[in-house]
Amino acid sequence: MIFGAVVAALLVAVGGCAAEVPAPTPNAATAKTCRSLVSALPQIVDQQRHREVEPASDFTAAWGHPAITLACGVTKPAGMNAASKCWEVNGVGWYAEERDSDIRYTTLGRTALVQVTVPNKYTPQANALVDLAAPIKSQVPVVRTCV
Description:
- With 147 residues, the chain is α+β, with helices and mostly antiparallel strands.
- The chain has one domain (19-139).
- The protein is built from three helices and ten strands.
- The protein has helices spanning 2-15, 28-40, 126-139, and strands spanning 19-20, 44-45, 48-51, 53-54, 60-63, 68-72, 87-89, 92-98, 102-108, 114-119.
- The chain has an eight-stranded antiparallel beta sheet.
- Helix 2 packs across helix 3 (126-139).
- It starts with a helix and ends in an 8-residue tail after the last helix.
- This is DUF3515 domain-containing protein.
- Keywords: Signal.
- Residues 1-19 form the signal peptide.
């Protein structure tokens, strides 16, 4: 009886290893771009290994504990507008939102909005963006450069 409880507890613990990342619902053209991006992502970001996400999606990815997360095909953040400050990291423009426990970055000037959330544990948080710049540049076309 005790053995069964221990096994059940271990299964719950192992099943809980996936990072929770809300799955975006992009339109067909954006979905194609996002699938290409996600398939081109590195296995390691900011020295953190790739991990599974829940719910499973073609548009999300995660690395490390706590999770650095990526979602492609997201909607524009409420505070992002034409006057928003654009931070460029390795040729990719980002809008940054500092929150309580993380910084959420959203690409600017690309055909698909890509959002990367980096917990405060990882400093500087922009290191994750360095590792993600090449696949974003190669898979998500630029419409307007960061100004």
